[in-house]
Amino acid sequence: IAVFREDGFEGVRRFLPPPSRRALLLCDPSYELKSDYGRVVELQTMALQRFPTGSSMVWYPIIARNEAHILPRKLKSVATRAGKPWLHATLTVKAAKQVAAGERRPGLPGSGVFIVNPPYTLKPALEQALPLLVKLLAQDENATHTLETQGG
Questions:
Q1: Nearest 5 degrees, angle CA 125-CA 90-CA 92?
Q2: Residue 111 and residue 146: Cα distance in Å, rounded?
Q3: Which residues contact 124 (CB under 8 A, 6 or more apart)?
Q4: Mean pLDDT, range 103-111, rounded to an integer
Q5: I want to staple 67 with a disulfide (CB 3.0 to 4.6 A). Which of 14, 37, 110, 111 is the partner?
């Protein structure tokens, strides 16, 4: 394990491909900057070119920001163009909408993960786990999940 105080989008390049040729690249940026969404797509494109056999996972928040809704579509396009299998899962625990005039619901309503070259055991595991997570974590009747895959 090593800790570096640097821009992870740039620093990851020196680690790809890893010597073992087996690895998971986890991308979990802050998304405080709108440019992070585009940088995630660029990172995924670069990672598939430099390490096509590796698995990569991108976490993203489900929020009322256009970039957050476009990101999964862009990641699907990148993986599909590269001919790689992918898995996309989301978990929403509550509505993000206002509950009363001028009042916002605190906290993140949901998040998603997009995985390229997912392990073959992941989809069946998520098919069992996601409904249970919805039941256990639901904060209102809007709690739900999605799971979609392609290839593999």
A1: 115
A2: 11
A3: none
A4: 79
A5: 37
- Quote the DSSP letter at residue 21: S
Give the confidence band of 98 by pLDDT, cuts at 50, 70, 90. low
Laid out side by side, the sheet with 55-61 consists of 24-27, 55-61, 110-116, 86-92, 144-150
- Cα separation, 126 vs 46, in Å, equals 27
Q: What are phi and psi of 59, to 5 degrees?
A: -95, 145
Helix (H) or strand (E) holding 10: helix 8-11
Report whether 34 contacts 54 (CB < 8 A).
Answer: no
Q: Give residue 130's pLDDT.
A: 98
**Backbone conformation region of residue 31, classed left if phi is above 0, alpha if psi is from -120 to 50, else beta:** left
CA dist list (Å): 105 to 53, 93, 148: 41, 12, 28
Give the DSSP H or E segment for 77.
helix 66-81
Q: How confident is the model at residue 102 (pLDDT cuts 50, 70, 90)?
A: low
For the record, the structure tokens of 152 come out as 């593999």
Q: How is the chain split among helix, strand and coil, in percent rounded to 5?
A: 35, 20, 40
pLDDT, tens digit, 9 for 90 and up, residues 112-146: 999 999 999 999 999 999 999 999 999 999 999 99
